[in-house]
Amino acid sequence: MSPDKLVYMVNQIATFFESQPRGDRVECIASHLNDYWEPGMRAQLLQIVESGRGDLNPAAAAAARRLRMTS
To answer: Which of 14, 18, 41, 58 is the most buried (most CB within 10 A)?
Structure first.
């Protein structure tokens, strides 16, 4: 999948969870990614985060760093 598409998707997920009143939003994003994204997509997202891409939502980037610890 293209990096632009992954960034778009994870930013949408982060925006959704930012609108929710409950819990740790970063953990919710990470849980969603663990539950619904294929391992290859998660690995590609980690590469994008490590590249320092500027258009990634900060909560999405934080969630991706949590994936590194749990995947």
So the answer is: 14
Q: Is 37 left (phi over 0), alpha (psi -120 to 50) or beta?
A: beta
Collapse the DSSP code of 58 into the 3-class scheme (helix H, G, I; strand E, B; otherwise coil) and give the result. helix
- Cβ 71 vs Cβ 22: under 8 Å: no
Classify residue 20 as left (phi > 0), alpha (psi -120 to 50) or beta.
Answer: beta
Sequence ranges of the domains in the chain: 3-70
pLDDT tens for each residue of 30-68: 999 999 999 999 999 999 999 998 899 999 999 999 986
CA dist., res. 7 & res. 12, Å (int): 8
